[in-house]
Amino acid sequence: xxxxxxxxxxxxxxxxxxxxxxxxxxxxxxxxxxxxxxxxxxxxxxxxxxxxxxxxxxxxxxxxxxxxxxxxxxxxxxxxxxxxxxxxxxxxxxxxxxxxxxxxxxxxxxxxxxxxxxxxxxxxxxxxxxxxxxxxxxxxxxxxxxxxxxxxxxxxxxxxxxxxxxxxxxxxxxxxxxxxxxxxxxxxxxxxxxxxxxxxxxxxxxxxxxxxxxxxxxxxxxxxxxxxxxxxxxxxxxxxxxxxxxxxxxxxxxxxxxxxxxxxxxxxxxxxxxxxxxxxxxxxxxxxxxxxxxxxxxxxxxxxxxxxxxxxxxxxxxxxxxxxxxxxxxxxxxxxxxxxxxxxxxxxxxxxxxxxxxxxxxxxxxxxxxxxxxxxxxxxxxxxxxxxxxxxxxxxxxxxxxx
Length: 403
Description:
The chain is built from 16 helices and 12 strands. The chain is of the alpha+beta class. The model has no long low-confidence stretch (mean pLDDT 93).
């Protein structure tokens, strides 16, 4: 079962991370039961619970034997609708979260992800990672969590997906008995508006003295899930950096030997998510790597992909499709995507045909639209003394501290 709640991970700057902290605290006390009681309850059912929070929603995932359907729904109801947010657990989980976020400042990959979100989206909800920042999470108190839960967690705004050996009438009756009587208000469910790139001038450099590698990120605001250009975006990203034998990886890894891997990541969210080119290269090759990555962007915009690239990208995106439906858990995940992103009922049955229908001309048009150098944000985390002179030959360089 998957309970999808419109409690997204990116709230206002002052409460960034509140959805993630609230999700973390759900099993730490609910319906008058303490964390150990909740754990014993789950163990007694042989159930597995996981709460995930991203930029679009909170999802409670419960895996339980079909014969314990009603008992499993009791657990979901208690955790989702009756969390106690015990003060002692709030303090403990908040402290753990703050410590974990601060430790991530030692990881250049995490630093780049955090700062890139801010550079690309600014004050937009996507301008902060779902985990939040140490300073914002540290200020969250129990009343904040209670108010957030009251605003976002309600059956009227949630969707329950179940996949398994279930009788439809039994399932509907069990759900209505536990959730139907407390529909409550309909929480705010609209996605945030599409954003415009916040920082588009020059290159941002975060200094890590003595670092032997530089982490490079080049990003732009791309598409939303379910947008008309989604199939084209998937094919274009596969060619650019989404596959092992994509252009970025074949250039920086296989040809130049500067990195263990270079790729591009396409994030399709309820609103326009980022497309990010990324690589970690030896410090000495930092500026050259940035040039090569930008050269690949220009090539995508100026020429149409070769026929063999189109065939390979389509094959990679479609032949792995059956793996997404192998288990009940996989199928539940695909249904959650349809619910969360408003995808058509025939989205998955038509996915392969939509990918194969993409033309080389459409890929070039997509690159021209979404990979405009004027809208790209460039970020490097590395040894400024070693890399700044070379980067300055590419454009203006702005030194930043880690977020």
